[in-house]
Every structure is written in C-alpha cells, then in structure tokens.
Write a structure and sequence with these properties.
17 helices, binds flavin-adenine dinucleotide, alpha+beta, single chain
Amino acid sequence: MNREENLSQLKDETKIWDIAIIGGGSSGLGVALDAISRGMSVLLLEKADFAKGTSSRSTKLVHGGVRYLAQGDVMLVLEALKERGRLLKNAAHLAHDQPFIIPIYTWFDRIQYTVGLKIYDWMAGKLRIGKSKWISKAATIARLPAIKQKGLMGGVVYYDGQFDDARLAVAIAQTADAAGACILNYTKVADLIKNDSGKITGLKVRDEIGKHNYTVNAKMVVNATGVFADKILQMDNPEAPKMIQPSQGIHLVMDLDFLGGTDALMIPKTRDGRVLFAVPWHGKLVVGTTDTLREKPKLEPEALKKEIDFVLETAAGYLTKEPTRADVKAVFAGLRPLARPKEGSTKTKEISRSHKVILSQSGLVTLTGGKWTTFRKMGEDTVDYFEQVTGTKPNASTSADMKIQGNTTKPEKGHWGVYGTDAKAIHALAESHPEWKEKIHPDFPNILAEVIWAIRNEMAVKLDDVLSRRIRMLILDAQAAIDSAPKVVKLMAEEMGKDQAWIAAELADFQKTAEKYLIK
Ligand SMILES: Cc1cc2nc3c(=O)[nH]c(=O)nc-3n(C[C@H](O)[C@H](O)[C@H](O)COP(=O)(O)OP(=O)(O)OC[C@H]3O[C@@H](n4cnc5c(N)ncnc54)[C@H](O)[C@@H]3O)c2cc1C
C-alpha cells in the first residue's frame, strides 16, 4: 500500500471512478472492501489517518450486542452475530474469542442473564463461539480474582469476540488496496462537484501532506464520515437538517492485575443503568464506557472529568483493588455517530444503533450509525445503492468470503499476532538491519523494525500514525508513548528523508495530541 503510487492515480482527471468514498473509518473501509469485491473501481479518501476517528476508540469487541438483545432489537443482534462469525474467520489474526463473566448478586439477575445468554447462544446458531453457562461463586473468584466477593452468588460466562480496531482498519485498507482499490490517507474532500442537473459527478480533494489539490470524477459518492456526516450533507445542501448526534464514550486503561486472569468482566446494568466492560487487551485492562451527548464532532475528543470519575467509581464498586486516577495509564474518548432523535428528545437510549443508508437527491449516498462489528454488511448495503444511483446493476458482493491481509488461524504468540502472516517479513527486516531489533520502549515488546514496516507497508505518515494506530502504545500507556516519541520520530525521519524542522513539528503535534490521553 503505497501512498505516492496511489496519489499519482489522482492526476488523471479524465478517469471516472465507479465509487468514491469519503472517510477511512470502519464504515468507509467496509464500503471499499465490498465494492472491490464486486470488481468496481474504488477510491477511498481519508482526511487524517485510517481509523483516526471513532474507529480506533472502540471497546474492541466483535459482538452481537447483548445489551441490544435486552432492548429487544433481535434483528440487529442477529445481523451482528453473523458478521462476528465472518470476522473471526476472515481476520483470525486480529479478532479472537473472548470469554466474558457477568458477576451475579441477585436471583433475578441469575435467571435473567442465564436465560438471556442462552437465547444469545441460540441466535448465533452455527456461528456460536462457546456455550454460555452458570459458574459457582468459587469458580467466579478463581477466574476473576479481583472481583468483590460481598454478596456474590456466582457468575454467568458467555462468549463474544475481541479485536484490534485500528490494526483491522489498516489491514482492510491493505486488502482493498491489494485487490486494486486506490486507498489514501491525509486526503481531505473539500467540496462536491455537481452537473447542471444537480447530480454529484465528482469531488475536490486536498492532499494534506503534499498540499496539492485534485479533482476526481465518480459515478457514485459515498459519505462515510461518521460523526462528520452532517458536514458533507451540508456541503451537498446547505439547508440539510442535522442528522447526527455525537455520543461520547471513554475508556480508561490500567494494569491487568486490577481484574486478574484472562476473562473479561461485564456489568450489564450499573447502578445508574449503564453497561460497564473491563476487558484484558494487549496486556492491559480496558475499562469503559460512558454515553455522554456532545454537540460538536471532533477527531480528538477529550474525556470529561465526570466521565473519568464515573468509570473509576463504577469499577471500584466491583473490584477489590479500587483504581484511582494515578493508576490510569491512558484515557481515550470516541464519538458514536448516532442518528439525531426527534426534536425535544435527547436520551441516547432512544437513538437507534443500527446503520442507515440515505440517498440524497444529488445522488450522494450517506452511511451512518452501525458498529465496527457490522462494517462489512454496512458496506454491502451501501454498495447495493449503486444501481439506484447510476442505473447499472453491480456484480454480486463477495466480501463475506474475502480474507483480510495477514489472515491466519495460527498467528505468532505475543504482540506479533496482530501482523498475522506479515510477521515473518518484519522479522526479516530486523535481520537485515540488526539495529532495528532494538525495543521502542522498555515496557513494550515492539521493536524499531515495526516502525519501518508501518512506513513501508501500512501507509504510516505521521508519528501519531505509528504510536497510536500501527503500534497501540498511545492508548495503552500515554506516558510511554510520549517517552518513545523522540526515538521513533528520528527513525521515521531517516526512513522518509525528512529534516530537523519536520522532526520538531511532528514532536510538537504528537505532544499536543498525547496530552489528551494522560490523566493529570
Ligand atoms: C466508545 C465507543 C465504543 C465502541 N465500541 C464498539 C465495540 O466494542 N464494537 C463495535 O462493533 N463497535 C463499537 N463502537 C462503534 C464503532 O466504533 C463505530 O460505529 C465505528 O467506528 C464508526 O466508524 P465510522 O467509519 O462511521 O466513523 P469514523 O471512524 O469516525 O470515521 C469517519 C472518518 O471520516 C473522515 N472524514 C471526515 N470528514 C472527511 C472529509 N471531508 N474528507 C475525508 N475524510 C473525512 C474522518 O477523518 C474519520 O476518519 C464503539 C463506539 C464508541 C464511540
């Protein structure tokens, strides 16, 4: 996946792409993957890095959504369970089974969750990962050693999937690119181009790195910009009403021993009716999340003090070793692109979580809502609009069977697993330059060869791309990422032929971003 090569494809202003996608989060990447699976010519334009927005800030669950089942949204759960099964098969190096335990304190909860999760198992059908079951108090404590024991009756174990969101985004981008799509980061869609009858025929694009402007033609344009969807809709029609209500969720990252073991903790209903997860991930514990309505979409949303307090207090209600602010290695916030409720209603629970595809008069196709787990199906549903927009029926989708870059059922142990079959090539890089075997940070297993790999093969352009989304250090331990920045940026500058001024600017940019992940 080479940025310069892909950019050069934009120079041909006579080319007409079948489909041009705005946004390189899970939604846009799902559209790109599905469109390329149908043999279309595909252009994807992301204004920042792949998954820079919400798609790198999820709870990292590939799930049917037990909570939506409780809300009676059976179709949503069925669809997600099907996609969960597909993702675990097609990206086996990046998504795996994860047991979850719901600690039980009342008889009512015991019955409710045992029955509910049996239904969840049954709905997954052949794609079921494991059988849910009741476990005794002793077994619950053995599996969740740090769980509060007062009043504990036992636990219900169930299975879902877990994944690395930003790494999956990059792997999907690579997969689509290898199949012939033109995938670009740091290319912002600045305007829509229309013909005399008001139909969209193309886009004005700005290369944010090279500072060049391009004009591209496309038969169909997809707006997959998540919480930014209204901006594109208003580019299309300045009178368009706002559709998106950003809802913020935050996660705190702490040491694994706050929970102990390898199982995840799930609290379906906290005292104030929310869901809380504490999930082991890349050697740390990710705890969240909240649901706070925000007015403005942002690429780097900040966690609010009250959200941090809420997660800490709620977690403390279930854990023997109560976490404090000083225990938090990183905090990250993400914005859910929920459909805005009708006038006068602001409760997030009333807002639909399923995805929607909207066709505007201009032919603009907007994909909103949904979740990471269903990214492929969301893509398929969107590409299905091609016939309505262009009058030409597209080929049938084959994305359900497409293997994602690096896919293997036998990934290497430890942090190498996320690279799947590509891990070998990174080892070879390290062998060719033994100095690249050096660790990036003493507390992390990642080595310098991974930085070179990210630049050469994963379109990493900026320091933040490497430390936040190729290697997940920023969201695992913000201070470690800040400490690693000078070493990583120096190597990036050598590899990319950049000067001291670039180094200084990158360091300053990264410091500004990284501070948002520290709790002071
Ligand atoms: C806290 C939280 C936890 C979640 N947990 C889970 C989970 O565990 N499992 C799950 O399945 N789902 C989860 N989700 C949902 C899932 O993360 C989102 O539904 C999904 O990531 C949204 O992806 P997106 O592509 O629509 O938006 P984004 O990821 O925000 O992508 C939109 C992209 O568009 C780009 N863009 C905007 N304007 C332009 C422009 N003019 N030109 C070019 N590009 C542009 C942005 O830079 C951005 O990268 C969670 C969501 C949140 C908020």
